[in-house]
Amino acid sequence: MVDLAQILDREGAYLEGKVVQRILSGVPPPNAPSTILRKKSTKTLVDTGDMVGSVSHRVVVDQDVVRLEVGIFDPAMIERATTNEFGVPSNDADTEPKDDQRIPTRSFLRYTFDREIDSVVERLEKQIARRLEEEFGK
Fold it and tell me: pTM of this prediction?
């Protein structure tokens, strides 16, 4: 039997690790001087460590649909994560990222997913095919 939830859980753990790596790598642009003074650190996206510690994954099974979700699901961290992922415009009329944003866009989720999706899909295809071959023969 092909346990799709188990296969997705492994890929979820992989993506979760990649998102954490991205956050800890120091996502550009650099912090503003005022932020560095407040935080006493130049490390972007990391202040208390709460946000990076909130990155997780889950496999959701709903009848015949199995879905992998990777991100930040802690309600206390969602606003902080969204603010950093998309930035905050200089004025409420702006909808696209601009150089003069109050808080710059520092994509850690979308960036990671965009970079990793092809390899994740390839591994999923191979794992599922291998399991089907084992189950039903060649």
Answer: 0.88
